[in-house]
Design goal:
Helix content: under 10%
Number of strands: 36
CATH topology of the largest domain: Jelly Rolls
Shape: extended
Number of domains: 3
CATH architecture of the largest domain: Sandwich
CATH class of the largest domain: Mainly Beta
Largest sheet: 10 strands, mixed
Radius of gyration: 34 Å
Distance between the termini: 122 Å
Length: 492
């Protein structure tokens, strides 16, 4: 055993030496840097050993420490791809003393491109959150309210590019001759009074509760949605009239029925136009969904009319995928039948727009007309078909055609059938892609199509075709969106 003794003078005690804190200084306390990958130098002054300790993984230090004297530390900073400002700390430690160097790195700023200098200045004044004198696309995307009254603005054409999420727009008392708000479908308040507008299109703005377009001396037409009734909060010049949309008919036809799904607010489809089939018995195709009544399940809308479209959304509720199969109350024999549709994605989805006989007795004997079908595992490939006793898929004689539409699930397209006593012709965006002719033999097995049929919209889940490659519930909820359904009859 080793014994350590400390000798002291008689009657005296010796104090242990105190540890000094250590001195260290930095050439900066904060670094504000741009989004690019870069290096920054920091000068360190110390009176002994010290170390560098970045507290974020996007900053590296070289060297990682030093000794007494002056040392330059190189900080390597990675590119900021987060889309937002980020901040971090680098600690410099000398004995018990710690200095923090704050690093603030901006994101890649993409400035909005606004043609009218007065409009840009008004936006920067109110919405330049970081004070850099630039309105970035990120800052623009966060704007929900634009107030730019009396700023001598003559052009606001960028509204539909950067500001589609806004709910409030006051552009009164400016010098506007045109105002495009057609894509601002979330607008609830619009004041464009005191300008020089000739017309105004608010057809897609069913959420609009307040509109003031007075003091536009040359305003003649305000384009509105179908079945329009002006809310109490609407004010217009006496010279202006509300104009509902005109529907162009195919040559030789006239409009006899339509549903534009333009009801203001949020609702379910009108029972004056539609009735619902319900149940989960597989529907002859081993389908997995439960079709609900009235477009709702336990208060949740499965079929919703809002913002000018019908949305059928298949979603799993209470352990079962709930969806909708809805049919027109009316039926028609012959005509031109058209829907404007945006289809849904996901393996297992099976949206359709089709027709069945009003006086149905047996399938396929009484016929079926499939204007559009799409299965999610074969995305953007759309089929049109007819079925009857002589021609149907179970015996391999079906009459059908499939086309590739690259944007079927991301954009609206029109799908139609022209049905006459002599033929059926199927169209995509007005282009003929499939025909089926009456063989003229008077054989019900080959042409049962001289009786009234009704229109159907549904979104199935799984089944013999929709689930042929399996299902993927991660795609739920899946929405099939319908802009309109229209029926035209030949002019006698």
């Amino acid at each position: 055993m080793t014994l350590s003794l400390v000798a002291t003078a008689c009657g005296e005690s010796k104090e242990e030496p105190q540890q000094t804190e250590g001195n260290i200084t930095l050439s900066a306390e904060i670094l504000n840097v741009s989004y690019e990958k870069q290096t920054q130098n920091i000068t360190v002054e110390a009176d002994g050993e010290w170390g560098v300790y970045p507290q974020v993984d996007w900053v590296k230090a070289q060297p990682s420490g030093g000794v007494s004297g002056t040392t330059t530390v190189k900080l390597s900073i990675e590119e900021n791809k987060t889309g937002d400002v980020r901040e971090g700390v680098v600690e410099f430690r000398r004995k018990s003393k710690t200095l923090e160097l704050k690093v603030k790195q901006n994101y890649d700023i993409e400035a909005v491109e606004i043609a009218d200098a007065n409009f840009l200045a008004a936006l920067v004044e109110k919405h330049d959150a970081d004070g850099d004198g630039i309105l970035s696309t990120k800052e623009a995307g966060e704007i929900r309210k634009i107030e730019c009254s009396g700023k001598s603005i003559s052009n606001m054409s960028e509204l539909s590019t950067y500001f589609t999420e806004i709910t409030y727009l006051d552009c009164s008392d400016n010098a506007l001759t045109e105002l495009d708000v057609t894509k601002l479908t979330k607008l609830e308040y619009l004041d464009c009074s005191g300008n020089d507008l000739k017309e105004l299109d608010i057809q897609r703005l069913q959420k609009l509760a307040t509109l003031d377009c007075t003091d536009n001396a040359n305003l003649e037409k305000i384009y509105v949605w179908f079945n329009f009734s002006a809310p109490e909060g609407f004010s217009k010049p006496d010279s202006a009239e509300y104009v509902e949309p005109a529907i162009a008919a195919p040559e030789g036809y006239e409009l006899v029925w339509h549903d534009e799904f333009d009801t203001a607010g949020v609702s379910t489809p009108s029972t004056d136009n539609w009735w619902y089939e319900t149940g989960d018995g597989g529907w002859g195709n081993n389908e997995l969904q439960d079709y609900v009544s009235g477009g709702k399940y336990n208060g949740t809308r499965i079929a919703e009319v809002s913002d000018g479209t019908l949305k059928i959304t298949a979603q799993k509720i209470d352990g079962k995928v709930r969806s909708v199969r809805m049919n027109t109350v009316q039926g028609w024999t012959y005509g031109y039948f058209e829907g404007r549709l945006k289809l849904c994605k996901g393996k297992g989805t099976w949206p359709a727009f089709w027709m069945m006989p009003k006086n149905f007795r047996a399938w396929p004997d009484d016929g079926e007309i499939d204007i559009m079908e799409h299965v999610g595992y074969h995305e953007n490939y759309v089929s049109s078909s007819i079925h009857c006793k002589a021609y149907y898929h179970s015996i391999g004689t079906q009459k059908t055609n499939e086309i590739h539409i690259p944007t079927a699930t991301s954009e609206f397209h029109t799908y139609a059938v022209e049905w006459t006593p002599e033929y059926m012709k199927f169209y995509f965006d007005g282009k003929l892609h499939f025909s089926f002719n009456n063989d003229g033999k008077g054989d019900y097995n080959t042409w049962p199509f001289d009786n009234p049929f009704y229109l159907k919209l549904n979104l199935a889940w799984g089944g013999n075709w929709g689930g042929a490659m399996g299902i993927d519930e991660s795609c739920l909820p899946a929405t099939y969106e319908i802009d309109y359904v229209r029926v035209f009859k030949k002019i006698e």
